[in-house]
Every structure is written in structure tokens, then in C-alpha cells.
TrEMBL record:
<keyword id="KW-0067">ATP-binding</keyword>
<keyword id="KW-0547">Nucleotide-binding</keyword>
<dbReference type="InterPro" id="IPR027417">
    <property type="entry name" value="P-loop_NTPase"/>
</dbReference>
<comment type="similarity">
    <text>Belongs to the ABC transporter superfamily.</text>
</comment>
<dbReference type="GO" id="GO:0005524">
    <property type="term" value="F:ATP binding"/>
</dbReference>
<dbReference type="Pfam" id="PF00005">
    <property type="entry name" value="ABC_tran"/>
</dbReference>
<dbReference type="InterPro" id="IPR050153">
    <property type="entry name" value="Metal_Ion_Import_ABC"/>
</dbReference>
<protein>
    <submittedName>
        <fullName>Zinc/manganese transport system ATP-binding protein</fullName>
    </submittedName>
</protein>
<feature type="domain" description="ABC transporter">
    <location>
        <begin position="6"/>
        <end position="247"/>
    </location>
</feature>
<keyword id="KW-0813">Transport</keyword>
<dbReference type="InterPro" id="IPR003439">
    <property type="entry name" value="ABC_transporter-like_ATP-bd"/>
</dbReference>
<dbReference type="InterPro" id="IPR003593">
    <property type="entry name" value="AAA+_ATPase"/>
</dbReference>
<dbReference type="InterPro" id="IPR017871">
    <property type="entry name" value="ABC_transporter-like_CS"/>
</dbReference>
Length: 281
């Protein structure tokens, strides 16, 4: 099996990692992944394939069943302050009077818990910078619950950026957005990693808006995975091997469509290494 090259600057290192619950089959196993500064990794895969659980592991909320994980060269819990997290979205409570900038402030305060207090001016500057980074300055003082779904999602990203993270973990940030807003969210995250060298793990079911930005795809399916550049992973051949049954990746008017994903992927343990070798960068 080919291993990922790791070097001292890697933001995430998973080595021989497996994660499962109780006595059942692991969600994934033998996962080697190194994420470099500024790298954008799209995490794709069917419902229940363990994408959210992977992020929870990098946040220190979920221990591995096997293997090792480090974030910024430390344990995930020790690195938490420098990791921005956009959780799966819920719309804000329509009765909440909280303004957009207050929400971003919560993100900022949460990460500074236990650290020396900064002046109000410094705090405000950081919040303004996060709002500006996502293009939310114009609605910074509006009640968050009155904003559109797209605006609320940009705010969640600003909240995650308020701590000026070295690593950004996004869980389904495109859910229930139209294509225009999906592209806007992807572009904001892409700009962040380019301007600040922030590494990104971006979990999504919406493959088309994210693929133009992704350096690599980690595709999870039925206890297995493949990692590699977009043009190597998003092919009929690679996904057929991963799922263990015929899957077609076809292009329709410039959009990729994946057809034939089985309800219950069938695969053979001996296929595992071959898939990884084929698709890994
Ligand atoms: N603490 C837990 N205890 C037991 N099972 C869990 C726990 N957390 C997650 N699971 C299970 O692990 C599986 C993977 O969940 P996860 O949320 O990581 O999948 P996902 O790929 O993000 O799915 P989706 O695309 O639907 O969001 C699910 O079957 C879930 O029920």
C-alpha cells in the first residue's frame, strides 16, 4: 500500500486510522491522509459513510478505533483553538434577536476562552475582519434570523474564521442553498485558503460547485475510501472499483453526475490497496 508523504508542516496527519462504533464494521479503516497548508480537500461519499465522524475526530470529539491522528502537530484537542468549524447547518431560531455580528463574536470568544482578554477595539477589529472576509459587512447589524439561507451560511463561515484558523473544517455548508449561493460559499472558502494558507476539509454532497476548487477528493464509501486529484477520483473506473459495482460518472452540460451508486456497496477486502494506489496523489 502506498503511504501519503508527510512532512513537518502538515496540518492533519491520519495514519492507519480506523473509526467504528461498538462491535460493528468500521466506518473507514487504514486511512492515511496528510493535509498541507492551503490545501482544499473535498470529502465526498454517501450518507452514513463517516464524513461528519471524520471531522469530529479532527476536532477531538471522537477517538479513533485504531491508528493515529494529529492536527497542527498536536492532539486534536490541543489544536482545537486554531481549528475553525462550520457545523451542519440549522436555520437560526426565528425569534432570536441576535445580530449577525454577535454571532461572529461568539465564534471569536469561544476560541479565546481562557486566554488573556483583548481590548474591545481589538475584538471588534477581528470580528469586522471575519465579516468582511465573507462579504457580510453590509448585513452585519441585521438580526441573523431575518437573513436568507445563503447569508446565514456566510455568517457561519465568518464565525468559524473569527479565530483566524490554520485549518477549516466545513460540514455540508452548501445544504439547501441555490447554485449561485453554493458557488459563493465555495469561493469564500477558496479565497481564505489562498490568502491565509488555511487548510480546508469540505464535506459535501454537492459535488459540482466544489470540484473547481478542490485540490484533492477524499471519497468514502461502504467502509472504504479513495484519495486523489479530482480527475483521478471522479471517474467511472475509480468509483466502480470503490463501490464494488458499476457506477458511471458522466458529464452533462459541464456538470458531473454520478449514476448507479448502490444502496449497499459491495467490495472485497483485497481491492483496498489497489484503489488507494490508483487514486492517491
Ligand atoms: N456516537 C455514535 N455512536 C454510534 N454510531 C454513531 C455515532 N456517531 C455516528 N454514528 C454512526 O456512524 C455513521 C456515520 O455517520 P456520519 O454522520 O459520520 O456520516 P456522514 O457520512 O456524515 O453522513 P451524512 O452524509 O448523512 O451526513 C452513521 O450510521 C451514524 O449513525
Amino acid at each position: 500500500m502506498m503511504s501519503e508523504k508527510v512532512d513537518g508542516a502538515d496540518l492533519v496527519r491520519l495514519s492507519g486510522a480506523a473509526l467504528g462504533f461498538d462491535a460493528g464494521e468500521p466506518l473507514w479503516k487504514d486511512l492515511d491522509l496528510a493535509v498541507r497548508p492551503g490545501e482544499f480537500v473535498a470529502v465526498l461519499g454517501a450518507n452514513g459513510s463517516g464524513k461528519t465522524t471524520l471531522l469530529r475526530c479532527l476536532l477531538g470529539l471522537q477517538p479513533l478505533s485504531a491508528g493515529t491522528v494529529s492536527v497542527l502537530g498536536r492532539t486534536p484537542a490541543a489544536a482545537r483553538r486554531e481549528v475553525g468549524y462550520v457545523p451542519q447547518q440549522r436555520r437560526f431560531d426565528p425569534l432570536t434577536p441576535v445580530r449577525a455580528r454577535d454571532l461572529v463574536g461568539y465564534g471569536y470568544d469561544g476560541h479565546r476562552w481562557g486566554l488573556p482578554l483583548l481590548s474591545r477595539k481589538q475584538r471588534r477589529a477581528r470580528i469586522d475582519a471575519a465579516l468582511a472576509e465573507v462579504g457580510a459587512t453590509r448585513f452585519a447589524d441585521a438580526p441573523a434570523s431575518r437573513l436568507s439561507g445563503g447569508q446565514q451560511q456566510l455568517l457561519r463561515i465568518a464565525q468559524a474564521l473569527a479565530c483566524d484558523p490554520a485549518l477549516l473544517l466545513c460540514d455540508e455548508p452548501l445544504l439547501s442553498l441555490d447554485l449561485h449561493h453554493q458557488r459563493e460559499v465555495c469561493a469564500v472558502v477558496d479565497r481564505r485558503r489562498r490568502d491565509h494558507n488555511t487548510g480546508v476539509l469540505f464535506v459535501t454532497h454537492e459535488i459540482n460547485p466544489v470540484l473547481p476548487y478542490a485540490d484533492r477528493v477524499l471519497y468514502l464509501a461502504g467502509g472504504r475510501f479513495t484519495i486523489g486529484p479530482v480527475n483521478e477520483v471522479m471517474t467511472s473506473q475509480t468509483l466502480t472499483r470503490l463501490y464494488g459495482s458499476p457506477v458511471d460518472v458522466i458529464e452533462v452540460r459541464g456538470q458531473l453526475v454520478v449514476v448507479g451508486i448502490p444502496d449497499h456497496p459491495v467490495h472485497h477486502p483485497e481491492d483496498h490497496d489497489e484503489t488507494q494506489e490508483t487514486a492517491q496523489s
